[in-house]
């Protein structure tokens, strides 16, 4: 039987394109009556579903306030603005919004490297980057892996700094057995379509700070206090009622989704751990990753193919992958004016990590087929390299 990779002439493992992510949305029949009520009453914003969602999220996260906003990005913008953050230490290996929202709010990013195994902000390097100008430390739960929360909190307290988490990937994650969200001054979550808790588009700012919550609620309404005389320059960051409704129902599925993704991670590891040159993100004991994304690293010298070579081989098998975050944010054109020290781990992960498909209702059989595609790519790595780089073959002819 021909079991060569599709790039070498075999049929693709998947006949149809396998999506990188699939949102686990509520069945329409479960929300139809509430959708009809929203439409018939014309209550499309600032209604009961927003209030109920905020109450449910505050309870789930164990915080006093959960302020729903139009996106994680606008939540970060409003948080930075409300806390008057002018300079913050943040990781170089993160999504661009971690930095762009700070710059939009008038702040300056100071990029610091991450730990190569956890892929989260390196606490020791972050502390070395603190100066008299530093206002805050910004950390992420990268791909759903909880940050070193206790160490970050202690460092922030030592230096009198704000601690903010870009928790875009954090819904479903647990730190020491409890949902991430109550630590630091604020944690800002994403509710977009690739996450475990979905609003379509949306975000939420979780905080125990009464004044911060008040400012963000006002800020999402243009800074308007209700009298059309804005107290400060806010933005429109309201979450629509339809989005809040979807998120409310999605919250009921969150725990099941997180558990299933951890099962899928175990299946991936079982199949792939024996292959040379593949690495996996390390989750600290006692924590749980949401596995919003499942990332592996590829050492081309041991695996036989580069990250991009493996991605091309999987693409031919109709398997969609993602290369987060390449280029790393500290190398984006937008931030070239900000002096940045060498960040070798961020550069390495950007060039060598590949995120594989994962979603909350993915079957075991689908994961097994993805792993089979990776296994045969490694088995035929030398032929694949020649197929992907024919000029190399000509040079040795």
Give the secondary structure arrangement, pairings included.
Elements: H1 28-41, H2 48-61, E1 65-69, H3 72-82, E2 87-91, H4 96-104, E3 108-112, H5 123-128, E4 136-140, H6 149-159, E5 162-167, E6 174-175, E7 178-179, E8 186-190, E9 203-207, H7 210-219, H8 241-251, H9 254-272, E10 278-280, E11 294-298, H10 300-303, H11 307-316, H12 344-352, E12 353-356, H13 364-379, H14 381-388, H15 390-395
Helix pairs in contact: 1-8, 2-8, 3-4, 3-7, 9-13
Q: What is the average of the pLDDT values?
A: 96
CATH architecture of the largest domain: 3-Layer(aba) Sandwich
CATH class descriptor of the largest domain: Alpha Beta
How many distinct beta strands?
12
Counted up, domains total 2
| Classification by helices and strands | alpha/beta
Structure description:
It contains 15 helices and 12 strands. Helix 1 (28-41) packs antiparallel against helix 8 (241-251), helix 3 crosses helix 4 (96-104) and helix 9 (254-272) packs parallel to helix 13 (364-379). With 397 residues, the chain is of the alpha/beta class. The protein folds into 2 domains: 28-251, Type I PLP-dependent aspartate aminotransferase-like (Major domain) (Aspartate Aminotransferase, domain 2, 3-Layer(aba) Sandwich); 254-395, Aspartate Aminotransferase, domain 1. Mean pLDDT is 96; it is low at 393-397. The chain has a 7-stranded mixed sheet with strand order 1-9-8-5-4-2-3, with helices on both faces. The protein has a 3-stranded antiparallel sheet with strand order 10-11-12.
